[in-house]
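Key result, reporting period 2: structure in, sequence out.
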């Protein structure tokens, strides 16, 4: 079933704020929270992730029903990509390799910002590229 296209963009806006706060404060705990949010989104889809739930419960009732839908697979894949970068960032901070934590968090922040500000989902585009390559290989 397709999802409201505004939901992932809202989630990206919240993610942008969280990851910016991580870079400002250096908080590994906050990055751990975001890593968990990515994990839930990758495992259950963006509608079951914390920011998806917040969107559905608080934001969507105030802005009305969706008019544009999208397939859930690309945003779910994007959550898995975010999980990878957040996990690397968390490992960097946890192991005392601060530059790795900052770099991985910064890359995740850049991707989230592109989605939130411009509606351009890098993880979704990567999903489509992987699908095209997989079809050619078969």
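The corresponding designed sequence is given below.
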């Amino acid at each position: 079933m397709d999802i409201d296209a505004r939901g992932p963009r809202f989630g990206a806006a919240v993610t942008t704020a969280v990851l910016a706060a991580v870079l400002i404060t250096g908080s590994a705990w906050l990055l751990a929270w975001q890593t968990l949010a990515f994990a839930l989104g990758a495992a259950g889809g963006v509608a079951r992730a914390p920011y998806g739930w917040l969107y559905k419960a608080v934001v969507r009732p105030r802005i009305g029903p969706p008019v544009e839908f999208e397939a859930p697979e690309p945003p779910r894949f994007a959550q898995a990509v975010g999980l990878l970068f957040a996990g690397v960032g968390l490992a960097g901070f946890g192991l005392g390799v601060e530059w790795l934590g900052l770099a991985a968090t910064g890359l995740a922040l850049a991707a989230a910002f592109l989605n939130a500000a411009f509606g351009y989902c890098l993880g979704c585009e990567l999903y489509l590229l992987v699908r095209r390559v997989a079809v050619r290989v078969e």
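The CA atoms of residues 73 and 83 lie 15 Å apart. The first strand starts at residue 3 and ends at 4. This case is discussed further under Risks and Mitigation.
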